[in-house]
Amino acid sequence: MTSPPAVRCTALRHAFGETVAVDGLDLEIATGRVFGLLGPNGAGKTTAIRMITTLLPVKTGSVEVFGLDVSHRRMAVRRLIGYVPQQLSADGTLSGRENVALFARLFDVPRRTRAEQVDSALDAVGLLKEADRPASGYSGGMIRRLELAQALVSSPRLLILDEPTIGLDPIARASVWERIEQIRLETGMTVLVTTHYMDEAEQYCERIALMHRGRIRAEGSPAELETDLGPGSTLDDVFRAVTGDQLEGGGIRDVRAARRTARRLG
Ligand SMILES: Nc1ncnc2c1ncn2[C@@H]1O[C@H](COP(=O)(O)OP(=O)(O)OP(=O)(O)O)[C@@H](O)[C@H]1O
């Protein structure tokens, strides 16, 4: 019998009042992949992720994580997932180590191995040396890596990252991705990531799904998507072809990203 995929969404739908955020989403993510979910603002990515992570109930359609139905096996699914949301999840008044230890307790990491797992997660993101400093003194990139450690401390099989590099400078972005790559190589963990940065998707995601208005409009490896559109096409071109001119309105995204970064670090 073949093992189930890491994630399977079938005819998934979610509306906030009149706004249909996810509208018949069919998505399958094979185990061990780095899978990129791309789409313009409001495409429904975060809403889909919140259903996959059990934070939002599934009312229409279904979601399975490693074959477990999220509606019926909520706690079991939560134990399999590490999640780094868009919003800040680290506490600036605590040290890096205390932040990760807090997540270890929340996610029931056994007391016996807790200290070891906290250190191992901090080490995996390159923060062991800074672990006893208050997180308020960390740079934006270090905070993102700390949040990664928080998500990794329970040794999840599926790591979900919602815009992990938003607002970071290119060096910090590369550093976050290098850590993700390294951890994935060492653990075979499946990674689901959303990003608006096409260069990152191209470089780091083995497979990409482009989401627009609540459903998947194109899916494949970056190379496949580019080839399908025509010779010389870039991922930006594919994105534009799928979403119309949504990238033209990037001003709002830039402002939102900058605001979010200011909030995160402020
Ligand atoms: N809690 C909520 N209440 C009402 N509407 C919501 C809520 N969350 C999301 N929406 C709406 O649902 C739609 C999809 O939003 P969602 O955040 O899932 O998109 P996204 O693809 O993650 O966008 P972004 O790239 O900006 O994060 C949008 O129209 C959004 O305004």
TrEMBL record:
The keyword Nucleotide-binding applies. Keywords: Antibiotic resistance, ATP-binding, Nucleotide-binding, Transport. InterPro entries: AAA+_ATPase, ABC_transporter-like_ATP-bd, ABC_transporter-like_CS, ABC_transporter_ATP-binding, P-loop_NTPase. One of its GO terms (cellular component) is plasma membrane. Its main location: membrane. GO terms for biological process: response to antibiotic. Residues 7-238 form the ABC transporter domain. One of its GO terms (molecular function) is ATP binding. It is found in: Cell membrane. Gene3D superfamilies: P-loop containing nucleotide triphosphate hydrolases (3.40.50.300). It is a peripheral membrane protein. Belongs to the ABC transporter superfamily. PANTHER family: ABC TRANSPORTER ATP-BINDING PROTEIN, ABC TRANSPORTER ATP-BINDING PROTEIN NATA. This is ATP-binding cassette domain-containing protein. It comes from Amycolatopsis acidicola.
